[in-house]
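#dry-run=false #mode=assembly
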Amino acid sequence: MVIETALYLNDRINNALPYIKNQYWLKAVLLISILSPILANDLPLVTTTKEGTLTFPAVKNIWIPRQQITYNETSTFKISCAIPYAPLKSNLENTNLPPLFSNQTYHTNSMYINFFKVHWLGTTKNGSDVLSNLLHGTRVSLWIGIMVSLISSFIGLVIGLGAGFYKDKYFKLSWLQVFLILFSIFIFWFYCLRLTVSVYFHLFIATTICYAHTLLHRNLAKKNSRKRISIPIHFLATRVIEIFTAIPKLILILTLSLFITKGTIAVITILSISYWPLIANLSRNLLDQLGQENYLQSGRLLYLPNLILLSKHALPMVAAVVLPMSITLIGFAILSEASLSYLGMGLASDTPTWGVLLQESRSNFSAWWVAVFPGLVIMYTVYRLYRLGQQMTNVDKLFLHDK
Amino acid sequence: MWAYFIRRLIILIPTLLVVIILGFYIQALQPTPTLSFNEDQKESSKYEQAQETFIKAHNLQLPYFYISINSFENPDTIFKIINPNIQKLLITWLDQIKNWEAVSTYYHELKQISIADSSPSIRHLAKLLLTEPQIDHHSSIVLETKATGKINNALNKLKLASWNFAFFIPRINFTIENQFHLWLFGNDEKDGVLKGNFGNSIYTNQPITQNLLSGFKYTLIFTCLSIILSMALAIVIATIWKWNPKLDALISTFTIAALCAPSYWVGSILLTTFSNPELLNIFPASGIQPIFSSSNGVPVHFIYFILPLVCYCYGLTAMLVNLLIQHLKTNENKAYYYTAKYKGIGKSKLYFFHQLPNALLPALSYLVQSIPALLSGSVVIELIFTIPGMGFSIFNAIQQGDHVAISFIFLLMGTITLVSFLLADVIAKWFNPKNEAIW
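#status=ok
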């Protein structure tokens, strides 16, 4: 099934490639998210050590945090970055500068340095450079968006596919299996999550459960195979989705962010919790509509194994809709992260993101440049992602019609 | 139709119950609220007493729900210890020692020593140990201070008694005396939610409904106005699109751009341009006045409504325009459209009497579904424009961590959302009975 899916995805991406080719903005954002420490940094790009060999501190900053990098500050040979400012580094001499060539205070008289030392997009009220913050913000914002989209579409696909494919009557288990599954979930929850027991005990419990499970399944479940009950997966999944959509997203996010500690992982979990029902609902609805066409039904009548039916017939149809949706979801996640940071409940203000920059504008209305540029960047990125998603749906429609 | 409605309603009730329980659990996950005291006052015994009465008044020491699953060694009477810090300390000790009897005797011995021992240094040491959650650190602390006698004996006794087998046996506890039961049904002293008492705020001690719903009229006015306005605007734009098909690309670009612009950003941009004394000072920056209170017979206070309404409307309008145009396009490929067209109906008659009503239905259904999103979206807009509406008080209550308020918010929002979903489904079913309901 894994190989099937991989081949299918490869096919689909090959088909969509001509459309992805022209996405210059998204490519640039992706590149900047990786290379931002080279573009904007107060570390020099090239210097010499005390022994006289060349080092590249700004390049090191791509994979090492800023605080851990040291270099020889007395060296005379230095090539600085194109934007020689670090993000969120306060400079009390140049606060609230408007964009482009404004009157700022320098400590050197060299014309060459003055030309490069320009705050192109102005400074915040702490005196940190807006452009540098923007470039470094792409890193956190984009990767939060991608991770949220990946996690929530995975959870949504599993639940939506299960609900849409098995419906209410096609997933059958014997009573014993139901009991064993519930029992093992309970045991796992009780010993591994509720009680704090040593790791060896966890391993012992897990192995015994697995062993007992396989033994009982082989010997006893076959005898009871006639007394199988169908599990209403569709009904259960629909109720769970309904419950999660019944709580408004913003209120759920605000309440969760109260007691989850601040950080990137926390924001990713909070947003994934609130976004998976979208994907699950979409894939389930699609399979429900397909059910009327009866080709999954005829496959069942031919005694095709469920795995092949799932991977060859159900998954391609669902992925054709979910793949574009997950791309637009990256944009929505970026928006939500920004709004969380704007309300002061997302990431801590010492990590540079687009939302943290926008939050600065909340208390500083006269500095329009702090609000306008990050907002435009967010808006255009999300717009491009939305458009890419739309194009992908069109490609997929063409692709399906060809077959 | 009625059978469908009733079946839908029957399923709605347990879903609502689960939403309420979920909301209750989410609010229970956050740490217990504490009274705000100065650092000097925290030392005194007065503070502890005040804290205990505070917790007792709101029944925060009780278990959250009817059923709880615990280890056999966990005492089911632990909620009788009122101080939440001591409760937490004893449970962390129990997790390490796995023997309740030994832990409780150790705790009582330490308490006895900290009060009654003759030497002040040992009393201080006992107090120190009573705040240390890690048992491993206890022996190192005792070794450092070279204390012998009672404390050392107690610690040794505790270590010998550790590991009781009963700790690994699960037990299901059932109590009627819990927070959820009290909140739902109440007791002799106060009514529960079912009798219309939603409880008092923990911090201000006022009724929560009065706290949260006092600004509801503003939010309601904004929501209704924005729904009507954006629907009207969307119909106008869709009609313009119908008569000028060349504008398709332009309209779709603008609508998607509007969907991608966060409302707080638009709000702050509007504020910096239109209520900035340095640029344009047309609209007031914040606050709200009743619409119809006027000076000299002219309703001047309408001006307060314009900027927030723009913020409310633009996203909804964009979404509705998108939906309308999409469904107008699909309707153009249908048989009824061709038939009417080639029979010779005029273009405007065909559009207004046949094509538009068919396309309006999904838009209407979407509009009903988006009411809860509008209500919760009011949080951000009311924060920017400092309107004392419901969203503003919801944000304040959540940020303060008010237990009672959060469970009320979940109850209210869950009900509104589920009812609006039901309404949207019923509308869809009413207009097109062929629609297969998805369960």
